[in-house]
Amino acid sequence: MSDFQPKIVAFVCTWCTYAGADLAGTSRIKYEPNVKIIRFPCTGRIDYMFLIKAFANGADGVIVSGCHPNDCHYVSGNFHARRRWIVFRELVDFLGMDVNRLCFSWVSAAEGAQWAKIVNSFTEEIRQLGPYKAYMELVKKDKNESVF
Amino acid sequence: MEKPRIGVYVCWCGTNIAKMVDVEAVAEEIKNVPNVVVSRNYKYMCSDPGQDMIINDIKEFKLNRIVVSACSPRIHEITFRKTLKKAELNPYLFQMANIREHDSWVHTDRAEATKKAKALVTAAINRINYHEPLKELSVDINPATLIIGGGISGITAALEIADADKKVYMIEKSNKLGGYTADIDLTYPHLSSVQQMLGPMIERMKKNKNIDLFLETEIKEITGYIGNFETIITPKNDNETKLSFGNIVVSIGLRSWDPSPLENYGYGKFPDVITSVEFEKMLLSGNIAKKDGSIPKNIAIIHCVGSRNKNYHEYCSRTCCTVALKYANQLRSAFPNASIYELFADMRTMSKGCEELYTITSRKKVVFMMFDQENDLPGIRKANINDNCEMIIELNEKRSRKFVEVPADMVILMVAMEGREMVKEVAQITGVSLDGNKLFIEKHPKLDPVATTTSGVYTVGSCQGPKSIPDSVSQARAAVARILGTIARGTAQVAGTTAHININICCGCQMCISVCPYSAISFDAEKNVSVINEILCQGCGTCVALCRPNAIDIWGCSNRQMTAELTALLLSD
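^ Those are the sequences you sent over. The predicted structure of the assembly is below.
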């Protein structure tokens, strides 16, 4: 399973984590190529249905990352994201999905090294878990009912 | 909507991208993606020829969507939007794929990096199919400016704006103007009087009718956006005052670090181990003396105390080396026969005239000794009675590789400069980010060093990074040039990336109103729907993700766009 290259999508805010990932680049910190970033204005913008959509399109893992508490460019968006996350995680668990394939973190514009660390450790975790075939099985089980 | 005709441009960034990503292969492969009309690769897309290439293609091939695959959009998105404008294409019909910071610079396998680049570019192309032309909103600019912090940079900015006959509100936390500069005796490298320079400036501040000065006042909250900010302050012995202003200058400076944690220097333990800030006050008072009132015969100046030290501050505090040389000169003038020692890690005398000061100082019987900042800091112990001095500094001299004992009656620690205690609050209130060292982050480190990512907010002086007086003054004047420019224009364009409500779907639950941090949403009771004020809306999208019936979407980051980007990203991987 160690050769498995997981597909991971990261939903990040432009002000903190996107900038942090930029800093990892300017600092030439090397990390795994598996995580691909999608840029949002704020974690508060991230509708968690996008995460379901990611799994439905073959993602093996998903990261959500934004500004640290009290550092949100838009004052409070990250708090709303955090609150929703707690509910969403419960829902994911209830639906029979694997919560270990979700990662929620704070990475500031100054934390390039932290971003690289999260990418590497989460990629390794997902690599150990293997491809997320179980999600497709879950969908097949209840063909008539939409996931959304 | 007209059928998308997409032009895709893959940038080499010299070798920055091309070394790790096969840019030609990426450009070749994406030719097959639906709606791509033109796909090219070029050495520097941001250069004039690169931008001209886009403009010509837009005209020749009637392109109506542009994707540039290059560096971070945080660097060049604005550049390319302007390119589109030049070609009379709406600037929002544009998308960047970041294959430099997020790809070529961080990966080591060329095949993997190229594969990732293809996925990122394909995702951007798929997304841009759903981009729509957006209008930019024009807002009026209130010509008043708020300045937070009355040090040399704040004062310079205030006078400059006031001299242009525009209103300034100066907020200062302490009871006097001048900041750290007010405690300095002489400047380096010319050793001229700071007080003679600063005094008249402060007088002008007090007399200028365009400047409202609020001492012993703090800012709790600022609302609004470029051109239209507001705050309520409570000046000392006065009533609440509401201020309206169009631009903000943050000039809160830095504070000196308390060196107590570096126990080897014995600050707080030995009475005559003092900080550079304490010594400067001594110079200003005209009385250099030990705690017991006697004259020191042996004086040691230790550099890099808490600076360039990974346990405290990794950065260089920039001014201390030259200030230390200034001290040696002032000490030599005061005590022609004293022994003066400079204990340094590396001598960093950048800026005009400063290296010359180093040469001059070295001819004044000052002993220079080097220590290992990383592994072997000097230590101070109490001297014996026969030593004829108060303290002994133990030092492994780096260049001679010899153990040296330096006699000292007074030790001056050149302490680091660090973020002030309220820096986080100020950052939050003004919407400016801090880096890991609690220094304000500029909009662009090279090309836009005084602006911030929040329109209308500028950071100047040391709070953006330790600085000398001339550098602080230059920054203040640079920010003022920008502000006066905005005021002269009278209006500013704000991005049209705002949220909008489909009133046919809105159920009137008003949840969006409760989460909006800008109070940009109100309720139309008659129609039973929420209404967004697009000037107040800053486009965070919190209401979009929250809206249960999916009635709200956001221009520039719509559900359709994000889904298109996401699916293509995964399917092309």
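Residues 8-142 of chain A form a domain with the Rossmann fold fold (CATH 3.40.50). Chain A touches chain B through 50 residues (CB under 8 Å).

Shout if you want it in another format.
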